[in-house]
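User: Is it possible to get a 3D structure for a protein together with its bound compound? The compound here is glutamine. I've pasted both below.
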Amino acid sequence: MSSNRPLKIVWIYPDLLSTYGDQGNTIVLERRAALRGIPTETVNVRSDQPVPADGDIFLLGGGEDRPQILAAHRLRRDGGLAQAVGRGAVVFAVCAGYQLLGHEFGGEEGQPVQGLGLLDLRSGRGERRAVGEIVGDVSSELNVPRITGFENHQGVTQLGQNVKPFAKVLSGVGNGTGGFEGAYNGHVLGTYMHGPALVRNPGLADLLLRWAVGQELQPIDDSWAGRLREERLNAVLPA
Ligand code: GLN
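Assistant: Yes, that's possible. Here is the predicted structure of the complex:
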């Protein structure tokens, strides 16, 4: 992030990758940045517009199979996201967005579709759709508390050598391989957690902000978010 301009948050393809309410993640980032006095600017980039390579945090959401294929095609052709990743920008991608960052994913008939190759992973179609609550323990180097989320996907994701699992699944399905959920490499992170993933996991929102500003953040009052987290954790894994 350059010091004399607001943190630029880029929501990629509201017309194709906004089926599951993941756009709310932008609001959480804006709010948590504002509480620390960090100004932000959010840009919505439709699939017929160029992706600004000067963004600081890029967000991609979930989508249905055909819009996901179209999004992958347009992002590959555009090249802006790959350029941004090349200079260390932060990417947070959910479900369809996560799958299309890999080398390939399964289309609506299970056919392999080429992804962006920004994460070393491949997705195919699983036997059964994974729908429901998910809980996991995050890779210790990320310093993020236990995650709680909601997943809804057919895809199964196999991680390659150059990517690390985001979390170990305690309940739910996640990647559907290796007992893991999500993946990351550098500042690019993908997850199957939909909808209010950053509302339910403020620690994850702060990880993205920390990566973007390159420094630790002041603590803020998280009692409301904490209550929601506790309620969801207890619903899935009663103490
Ligand atoms: N089409 C993908 C799948 O079913 C992604 C779905 C989603 O984003 N929820 O795995």
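The longest helix spans residues 65-78. Residues 20, 62-65, 68, 95-96, 152-155 surround glutamine (CB under 6 Å).
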